[in-house]
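In response to reviewer comment 3 from the previous cycle, which asked for concrete evidence that the modeling workflow produces usable outputs, we include below a single protein chain processed end to end. The sequence was submitted unchanged, and the resulting structure tokens are shown without manual editing.
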Amino acid sequence: MAALTKQLFDAFQEQSETNKDVLLPGYTHLQVAMPSSFGLWFGAHAESLADDMDLLSTAFRFTNQNPLGSAAGYGSSFPINRTRTTELLGFEDLHYNVVYAQMTRGKTERTVAYSISALATTLMKFAADCCLFMSQNFGFIELPEEFTTGSSIMPHKKNPDVFELMRGKCNKLQAIPGELAAITGNLTSGYFRDLQLLKEKYIYAFTEIKSCLEIALLMVPNISIKKGILNNDIYDYLFSVEEVNRRVLEGTPFREAYKQVGIEIEKGKFKPNKEVNHTHEGSLGNLCTLQIKNKMDGNYSKIDSSKIDLAVKNLLG
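The workflow returned the following structure tokens.
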């Protein structure tokens, strides 16, 4: 899962760098707001994955503790060596208290499910954007015809079914932590048969997030973007904030500049200057692609299963 997330991150970053100078309308409340770019859009999803990787690494560290030897939850009179078992199996540490080792049932699943849920949120938002941007009234992006589906009665349709299904699956994944919490929320310490109900949702989460990552990894490099979008007059008001800021930088108080531009818009006299000059970190002109890559690399490096892999290899001979 982490490896697929890293590959998808790389695909987003490549699209971001390739299209960093192509402007895109930015929306708030689904209303035309301010200039954005495909570099910002792809880059936003990349950085979201970088933070998701941090959550995955946290889940990995939490689960990389050995619960074995706790028996029914109260230890054993056999003189077992739990530290040696931990070493042989390649765990990083041990759940020492035997009662707590049993209490991690449910807690472990919820921790991992939360990390999967965060990843699903990123994929869902990307899929939702793509469904919107592919519609005829937007037309910002396109997919190859083989990645779309037609209609049974409307011959002009090219539907983004793949993104719609990804969106739906990821919305279901976001609900799983709550379902697991509902199963375990009123349990006292000690083992209960209720805990076996966790497995159905837990295993499903891994299967579904993996399929969504694989699909996204196929789709992202094949997205084609439309250039010159902001040349359309309907996007003129995108530049109203730029004009307000320009006047402020020339010495006009902000409230006065805001009012001036507002009056020009009301009277139909607003003439946008479509040159955009953003320089601060993370903006149109300074995507911080390298810094985001470093964030991802640092988080990904925390997920090191080499010790576990070596332990399994040694045990199998």
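Residues 2-231+272-302 form a domain with the Fumarase C; Chain A, domain 2 fold (CATH 1.20.200.10). We consider this sufficient to address the reviewer's concern, and the full set will be provided in the supplementary archive.
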